[in-house]
Design brief:
This protein is of the alpha/beta class and 389 residues long. The strands form two sheets. The chain has an eight-stranded parallel barrel, surrounded by seven helices. The protein starts with a strand and ends with a strand.
Length: 389
């Protein structure tokens, strides 16, 4: 979906396909048929933006076979879909029964992360619509915190500089400008937007910026205005933003709140949980750990890294951090010029929701994704952007 900002520029809104994980190119093509096109039809749109997630094997197939890349581009066109951004965070196995810590490997100290992201950039340059010259790729924020010492951190920064040089060369070759965005996430080396400033200014290349995920920002209790002001002041580009909402518990000391939270503790994904105290941010790596005894102070609200549907907050006594998303979006695109032109709805946890909240089949899932995109569209038009055909 495209929108005209009051300054005349185009802002793109997509939804991320990591909610339909596929490891192979055939699986990606099936996603377009079974999920993406039905969402577009529900929205009554001739064109729908999708943020593709391409696992290692799918990316390899596309970058090594020009005919396969042309075939994917034709399939996107045929189904009324377009791609300006990729989710390059998960490497493989995102649809496994247990993902947890595996999603953080390989990290940026591993040469395979550089090679994979280079492949994604080459693929994206070939998928961009004819009238679009700028693409974006979100990626993991260097590494999970326990896997990174100073030597590995330096290796990671060097790899990102190498990637930036390759992206420069790619633009010279194709005329397409691809940028990569570190996505701060709780528990990682770069957990917050503030954590991103030092490494990104050290890399000092406009090809490498930040992806502001509004669920992650809220989980870490960051103030949206302060976070975005600090990024702007430091000259860190907001390459893209993922529009998502975290799980919020206002009174986690109450037994009924603990019981409600326990329904969201599930075995597939990591749900880092945080609370803000007078002594600073406290947290656990997962929700079930927070619910075990006194692992986390419960005098103040808890927030958990669980991407809940934007249009449907959990039932009381829980809620979501949708107000944080709205505040971020106002700052990102509500001013005289947009801070980013790539927005992506990223609720990948539909099938991890408590059983009574999960969609029953493809039809309900498509309905839910369309409802999320409708909410995001309405927020953008309320900010003065005009929806384009």
């Amino acid at each position: 979906m495209r929108f005209r900002h009051p300054d005349g520029s185009t802002v793109h809104l997509a939804y991320c396909t990591n909610v339909h994980p596929a490891e192979t190119l055939d699986g990606v093509l099936a996603q377009l048929r079974d999920h993406c096109e039905p969402v577009r039809r529900r929205l009554g749109r001739d064109r729908l933006g999708i943020g593709l997630w391409l696992a290692k094997d799918a990316a390899h197939a596309l970058v090594t076979d020009p005919s396969a890349l042309r075939g994917l581009r034709c399939e996107l066109d045929r189904r009324g879909l377009e791609v300006v951004t990729l989710n390059g965070f998960p490497y493989e196995g995102f649809g496994a029964e247990e993902v947890k810590y595996r999603v953080y490997t390989p990290d940026w100290a591993d040469p395979e992360r550089l090679e994979h992201t280079t492949s994604l950039a080459r693929v994206l340059a070939g998928l961009l619509p004819d009238d679009v010259t700028d693409g974006s790729i979100s990626t993991l924020p260097l590494a999970w915190r326990t896997a990174c010492d100073e030597r590995r951190a330096q290796t990671a920064r060097t790899a990102l500089r190498t990637l930036a040089e390759r992206l420069d060369a790619l633009q010279e070759l194709t005329g397409r400008s691809i940028r990569v965005a570190l996505e701060p996430e709780p528990g990682c080396v770069v957990e917050t937007t503030r954590d991103a400033i030092a490494p990104l200014t050290a890399i000092a290349h406009d090809r490498v910026g930040i992806c502001v995920d509004t669920c992650h920002l809220a989980t870490s209790f960051e103030d949206p205005h302060t976070a975005l002001h600090d990024l702007t002041r430091a000259g860190v580009p907001v390459v893209k933003s993922q529009l998502s909402a975290a799980l919020h518990a206002e009174q986690p000391h109450l037994p009924e709140v603990r019981e409600a939270l326990a329904a969201f503790a599930e075995p597939r994904f990591l749900h880092q949980t945080r609370t803000s105290t007078a002594a600073g941010l406290r947290g656990t790596d997962d929700l079930d750990e927070a619910l075990s005894g006194d692992a986390l102070p419960d005098a103040g609200p808890w927030r958990a890294h669980f991407h809940v549907p934007l249009h449907a907050a959990p039932a009381a006594p829980l809620t979501s951090t949708l107000p944080v998303l709205k505040s971020v979006l106002t700052r990102l695109v509500g001013g005289p010029h947009p801070l980013t032109r790539h927005l992506e709805v990223e609720t990948y946890t539909w099938q991890a929701l408590p059983p009574e909240l999960r969609p029953r089949g493809r039809t309900q899932l498509a309905d839910g994704i369309a409802a999320e995109l409708t909410l995001a569209r309405d927020l953008l038009t309320d900010l003065g952007l005009k929806e384009l055909p």
